[in-house]
Every structure is written in structure tokens, then in C-alpha cells.
Amino acid sequence: MSRTVDLVDLDVPLPPGLRWQRLTIADHQQVCALHLASLEGIAASVVRREEPDFFAATLLGRGELAGVFHGPDMIAYTVLLRTMAVYDDPSPEWTPDPSMPLVKLAGSGVLQAWRGLGLQKAFIAQRVRMAGPQAQVFGTASPANQASWRNLLSGGFTLRAIKHMYGGSPRFIGVRLPHQPPAGGAEPSATDVELDCFDTEGQQHLMRQGWQGVAVGAGPNRIRYRRVQPPEATP
After folding, report:
1. pLDDT, tens only, 44-95
2. Cis? peptide before 220, omega within 30° of 0
3. Which of 1, 51, 94, 99 is the most buried (most CB within 10 A)?
């Protein structure tokens, strides 16, 4: 079921020469083509392939899509999802508060020639604005997709859980909650612990003890964890 929401302006700054445009069902074919082009050379276990029906349903009310254009040409897009499928559910690894709206950062695509300009960071900031100040916002990222989880951390998200999703591939669940100061990118603390992003078992152990990934660590594959809540009770 779609929801009626107040649309916010697409006003997060973009590099010179680029502009935002809210997408409609008339853009469906172009978005699908851009999606496939943006995934060339990327393993399906790292970035999820979406079917055309996903984009159609989102454009027709499940969420919002914003495109980035250079002149008449769409060179990137980003998706915010408000009505989720069963496979989007982050629980029980991370359980949202049922009293607050839940929205998902549901993917972005950038043509190869336009990468390296910081568009993914702009996409996270814009979708957080689109989600609204009362929403719980989450996104997923494969441990193998360093750019994705690094952008979540720099965008104020914390890594709360690891769940096997989309056919069994591991995904970090990055979360940003309303009324809580973003912890992502936090200054180092003497009690922080760094782990390799591929150390699934070690990270899950910390997460169950109330630790969250709060920042990029000292190396390209390292994530800095901090204990920010009491550990889960043991039955």
C-alpha cells in the first residue's frame, strides 16, 4: 500500500553542471537501462539486481526516485523506499521501533563516467531529507562494497547488524534514528575496537553485545566499533 507524503525539495548540492529531477513513471524505461548499465562488472552478490517491476512499483507509490541529469541526459538515480517487501525486513537482526515510520535507502546507480564526484554521499543526504525528521532510516551494504558502507558511516549511519539477505548474501544494516545525534564518523575513543569488514562472526559478536560500527577504521577494510548500548540479555 502506498502512502501520501509531503515531498521535500531536491536541494542537496551537486557538482557544477548537474541538476536534480524528481522521477515519474514516464522515466521508468530510462531508469531500468541506467540501473543495468551501472551494474556492469559488479557481482550480483555485492549489489542487488532489481527487476523492472521494482522501479515501476516504486514510481507508482511505494517510494520516491530522484534522478541526476547532465543537460537532457540522466546520469544517476537514487531510490527511497517507504513500503517494503518481505525480503527488505531487517529484523530480527535489527528490529525497528513499530511506533515510528521506517524507510529504506533502496539503491542508487551512477554511470561509470560520472563516478568519483561524491554523488553517493549526496544521495544519502538527500534521501535522509526526503525521509523526514520522524523516520527511522536504514540501508544495507555488502562487506565487499567498501564504498557503500563507508558512505553510510560518513552519512551519520551506524552499523547495527549483519543479516544474510537477497539470496543469502551478507549485508550490513546501517541505521540512522530520529532525535539521536549521528554517531557516524565519531572521533576515536580509547575503548573503540577495529575489525576487518569481512570478519562477519567477530562483528556479529560485538553487535550482540551492544556495539555499533561508528566510523571507518585505519585501513580500507577496517571498521571502528563502539559500545553504545547495554548488551542483549541472555536467555
Report:
1. 889 999 999 999 999 999 999 999 999 999 999 999 999 999 999 999 999 9
2. no
3. 94
- Predicted pLDDT at 60: 97
Place of cell 541505521: 175
For the chain, the DSSP string reads -----PPPP--S---TT-EEEE--GGGHHHHHHHHHHHTTT--TTTSPPPPHHHHHHIIIIIEEEEEEEETTEEEEEEEEESS--GGG--TTTS---TTS-EEEEEEEEE-GGGTTSSHHHHHHHHHHHHH-TT-EEEEEE-TT-HHHHHHHHHTT-EEEEEEEETTTEEEEEEEE-TTS---TTPPP-TT-EEEETT-HHHHHHHHHTTEEEEEE-SSTTEEEEEE-SPPPPP-
Asked if 221 and 203 touch (Cβ cutoff 8 Å), the reply is no
Sequence-distant (≥ 6) Cβ neighbours of residue 109 within 8 angstroms: 34, 35, 37, 38, 39, 76, 77, 78
Rounded to two decimals, the pTM is: 0.90
Confidence at residue 167, expressed as pLDDT on a 0 to 100 scale: 85
Q: What are the C-alpha distances in Å from 233 to residues 1, 52, 201, 211? A: 36, 43, 19, 14
User: Can you tell me the distance from the alpha carbon of 234 to that of 208, in angstroms, rounded to the nearest whole number?
Assistant: 10
Find, among 162, 216, 210, 176, the residue nearest to 194 by Cα: 216
User: CA separation (Å) from 58 to 1, 23, 44, 140, 160?
Assistant: 11, 10, 21, 18, 26
